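Hey, quick one: can you model this chain's 3D structure?
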Amino acid sequence: MTRLKYCFLLMIFFHASIMSSAYGLDGITDPKQIPAENFFKENTEYSYRISPDGKQLAFIRKYTQTYNIVITDLEKFVEVHEFAVAKNSPEQLTWISNNRLVFGLGGVIYSVNRDGADLRVLISNIYDADKVKGYRSFVNNLRYWSLLKRPSGNEEDVLFLSYNIDGHANVHKINIYTGEKTDLYDAKKLKADGLYTDRDGKVILVEKIKKEQHSFYRLVGDQNDLELANLDIANQRYQLSYDAKSYLNRSVVVNEIGYDKDTMYLSEKTSGDRYQLVKYNYITNTREVIGSDPIYDVGSPDEKAALHYDYKNKKLIGFSYNADKRKTVWLDERFKKYQQALDNRYPEQINQIYDWNESADKLLVVSSDAKTKGKIIVFDAIKNKSIVQTDYSKILSPSQMKDTEVYKYKTQDGNTITSYLTPPVATANQKWPLIVMPHGGPFSRSYYGYDGHMQYFSTRGYAVLEPNFRGSTGYGVQHLLAGKQQIADLMLADMADGVKALIKENKVDPSRVYILGFSYGGYAAIMSAIKYPDLYSAAVSAAAPLDLNEQLKHYKKEDLWFAYEFWQDLIGVKQQGKKFVDSISPYQRIDDIKIPLLIFHGDRDNIIPKEQAEDFKKLVEKKKLNIPVRIIQSEGHGWDLVSSNTYFVEKSVELFQANKKVAK
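Sure thing. Here's the predicted structure for all 664 residues.
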């Protein structure tokens, strides 16, 4: 063994030892002893980007008081530079040459050399400082900037997008050395809310939003003439425009404008129930199917397909979408070989290639599963070697964790539901206690992958079921739209049928079945406690809407018209009336809650106002009910703090352990 290799291995061993010691894993062989906070530790290194020549790696490292940019020499695999850039998290870290990077911070664009020199503002929030003479001109010149298209190679001029104070979009070409701006599209007259451009910054589609209506236009003649955009597919016209009622059932969704002349990539369902990825020429109205799946949507209104480009040769080389697991389809033979090499090397992992250098012989890979947050790997295709840059699994001991499996079951009316099932780590040949974890939305879906709550419960002896009930996205429009006006009926029945299937298979202990969720999942937990008190032994709800009529009033008061109309339609307000909405609201059904229930809510939740939880708590106290309501400080609708998540899971397990059905 060479001295250099020995030192390198010693360094890795020392780093692993430090990680294990820091997170309290020394000597732990029982996964139940892994501290709860370990499941929710944030990643302190992220935004990995490889330089155009493939010789350097840049990433963000977070400290308590600052965010640093770190540069690794990929030939020696040592960190050569680290420098502080901000007190808040930088965005869109991108190499714009082999020596220089750009990043965004609060809508301002900064540029810096790889060694930290020449850190400066490239584009400020003020578009034209010379025109600022007072408050009005100051406001009119405010802009929020972001990178529009990733640059290829050592370009001098890079495309950026800016939004003015009214949220209207503009396109600019900026010289990364001089800061000189060339305006390619000015939204002053058209007041565009969104833009779809080609790779040169030419605007192809303009999106305008008025209340709940999203309208798409094509530019005709000069920049100030518009016509409503429709697509002709198989001799039939399809609108791109949509409103709150038609959002989930659109026939055509635009992903991106491609490199090829006059082409865009669409997810469309013009010939079936599931979305497929299509390359469409909007001049000749011809299309080519790029990707389809017999079970899953390849892109959808809720989730666009991720497109992967060869920026040097200016072509699409692959795309990714969510099937049972995250799936990438490569159209390029080199990347097919790379993917096969990685899958052979890490056979039980999902290996996602997400960044590479200009010559595509150095790649960045996320290798992950459901047991941990995975690893960041640098893959050298020429040498056929890979090096682990960052290993997020050190704090959890993945060899002791259980992987998540796809579990399909039949509902009472004969439909098939696809779910994710994570067994408990220790079973001792006994039937499992089960926690049902419905996803939020509800018009979204659960995915295969790491979830701290799920893995914590698994190590504490609980199986976790995550059902993609009807109303979930990704399984075709028929499955999705079956959930309309069914948030307290069919969706809950689909969840209950998953429990019953596992009980029938003798996997689950029927006396220890629980339900827990966030947002809609929290709502489903409460309503399931009401509708299925004989099935569930206890329930935990977080960030849930507790009074649906009040939630609709909130949307209206805040001028959130799309959300207001969307939920009016999907709940069925106009069809069923206010009394029906009351009948499916936990606040009005509080007396029907017959099993133990625990409620959490963030005090900074701007989606579901905390007042709903506070009003629910007052009603609980007035009626002298034993339903604890906990308002968590410094948390919004989604929770970020380790302490909050730790408190949540530990209190949930306390509730579950204390409540078990008594055999009748």
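One thing worth noting: Residues 1-24 have pLDDT under 50 and may be disordered.
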